[in-house]
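W.,

You were right to be curious about this one. When I first looked at the sequence I had no strong expectations either way, so I just let the prediction run and decided to look at it fresh. Below is the sequence, 84 residues in total, followed by the output.
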Amino acid sequence: MPMNGSLLAVLATALWLGACANPFSVLAPDAAEVIQSAWYPPVEIPAPRQHYCYRTLGRVDCYRTPMPEQASRRVGSFDDAPAD
């Protein structure tokens, strides 16, 4: 099926425009500007809560405060982010 002139002109124009650079790309912000912009306000992250864990007869129990008298049973401590 032969192509008529107008269809060929539309295809050629589309190819020519597709190969052109975006003239507005100089106005687009770079990654650093986007990160530093005020689009997203800074989020305050609360300090994590500390847990102190001690071995018991059947399991490990964790407490918010350390128990110095039970130091020999201590298996570790960890930070626990508060639930929202």
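Here's what jumped out at me. The longest strand covers residues 49-55. And, maybe more interesting for your project: The chain has a mean pLDDT of 77.

Coffee later to discuss?

I.
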